[in-house]
Amino acid sequence: MKYDVFISYSRKDTPIADQICEAFEDVGISYFIDRQGIGGAFEFPEVLAKAIVDSQVFLYLASKNSYTSKFTNSEITFAFNKKGKNKLLPYIIDGSEMPIAQEFIFSAINRRNIQEHPISSTLVNDILTLLGRDVVNNSIASTSDGKYTFEKDTNQLVSISENGKYGLADSNGRVIVPCVYDNILPFFQDLARVSQNRRYGYINRRGQVVIPIKFGEAYSFSHGLAAVSLQPEGLMGFINQNGQKVIDFKYPLVGDFSDGLATVWNGSPGHPNSRCGFIDTKGRLAISFQYERANGFRQGLAAVMQNGKWGFIDTNGNIIVPFVFKRARSFYEGLAPVSDLSGKYKFIDREGNTVIPAIYDDAAVFKQGKAWVKLGQRQFYIDHNGNPVS
Questions:
Q1: Which one of 20, 28, 208, 333 is most buried, counting C-beta atoms within 10 A?
Q2: Three-class SS string for 252-299?
Q3: 45 — phi, psi (to 5°)?
Q4: The domain 295-390 is classified under which CATH number: 2.40.128.630, 3.30.450.30, 2.40.50.100, 2.130.10.10?
Q5: Among the residues of the chain, which ranges form H helices?
């Protein structure tokens, strides 16, 4: 398996990492990301090191969380020795300053930060440039006082920064919330996660704190629920939009809700006996702990791994597509890219039938009627019939 990008990050920064992954999928950038904590002592040499070598670009999500992570520091050192500076991209996601040791490693490399260089515009284009691909066009705007530049979005407030602190402006550039937060994530279900002094809470679109800034970790809302922990690296549960606990804090790692279910783990990520299952919005175990890895549900199906192979289940846990794939990505627009044991990618429908044959070396999910694919040295987009499109 070859990747365009290896994403090095702290698990505490999962919400931002997920946004970056989604932006990459939109433009067909393939990536490796350690979602289940495989960077433990058992598998680091065999899995992470190989993925770094097999990726064209090493993207480091720099933050106060990642600076103290022994795994991200090991990844940085290994990547620097294997790739050199021209394929490393540090991306600061919380306005922090790098410690001097990392400053030394990344000296002479143009660092980016999430506030001045938005994910879906600058970061994506930086990666596409490093990969030698055409960049995408974006609408860039400035706030009314001319102090901040951001990607224009008529549907959401946008984040702005000043002196390492963040606030919000509307799509016309009017400042709504002054720059007082250490970090702000985009709005989901009319609430945005904010942080101060390594604690997290939520604000509404008027900038009012509606859930106190007290959590050790917090994700964005989905299905009216957000995953939080009371202490950094503590067990996770879910709260509602009033800040009330709905699901007990008892899971080492969780995913967001999708199609009414969320992935949860019964043990520490990276432990060989750890397994994942799915809970419903009441916290009831809907699908038992039996999978080695799992993606969230999309269009009623979830890609899950069992005995080293991937297949698809429905929301009742029924096997819809057998466990026969080396890799499987989620369903979008009725199709999912999967690779056979030879590593070649094809696209299947929800019954597991091959719709587009297994000829590709890599493939991304469909978005807006087209999917990025790689065939030998060629990289291009195809439609639902497998025909190349611009």
A1: 20
A2: CCEEEEECCEEEEECCCCCCCCCCEEEEECCCCEEEEEEECEECCCEC
A3: -60, -35
A4: 2.40.128.630
A5: 14-27, 49-53, 64-67, 70-83, 100-105, 124-130
Q: Given this model, what pLDDT does residue 249 score?
A: 95
Under 8 Å CB-to-CB from 254, ≥6 apart: which residues? 219, 227, 236, 238, 262, 263, 264, 265
CA distance 44 to 38: 7
28-48 per-position pLDDT tens digit: 788 888 864 443 334 445 778
Are the beta carbons of 338 and 327 closer than 8 angstroms? yes
Measured in whole angstroms, the distance separating CA 301 from the mean position of its chain's CA atoms is: 19
pLDDT at 101: 83
For residue 141, count other CB atoms closer than 10 A to its CB.
16
What per-residue confidence (pLDDT) applies to 267? 84
Q: Are 105 and 80 spatial neighbours (Cβ–Cβ below 8 Å)?
A: yes
C-alpha R_g of the chain = 21
Confidence (pLDDT) at 244? 96
Q: How many residues does this entry show for the chain?
A: 390
Q: Phi/psi class of residue 183: alpha, beta or left (left: φ > 0; alpha: ψ in -120 to 50)?
A: beta
Nearest residue to 221 via CA among 249, 186, 174, 248: 186
Question: Strands 301-306, 293-294: parallel, antiparallel or unpaired by DSSP?
Answer: antiparallel
Q: What confidence score (pLDDT) does residue 152 get?
A: 46
CB neighbours (10 Å) of residue 50?
A: 12
Average pLDDT, the chain: 83
SS3 88: strand
Q: In the Cβ-directed half-sphere of 39, how many Cα atoms lie within 13 Å?
A: 21
Average pLDDT of adjacent 10-residue blocks, the chain of 390 residues: 86 80 80 61 63 91 89 87 80 84 79 73 81 63 48 56 78 81 79 87 91 91 90 89 95 88 83 88 96 89 92 96 92 92 92 95 86 85 91
* Secondary structure of residue 131 in the 3-state scheme: coil
Q: Which CATH superfamily is domain 3-130 in?
A: Toll/interleukin-1 receptor homology (TIR) domain (3.40.50.10140)
> Going by C-beta distance under 8 Å and a sequence separation of 6 or more, which residues neighbour residue 309?
323, 324, 325, 326
pLDDT the model gives residue 179: 86
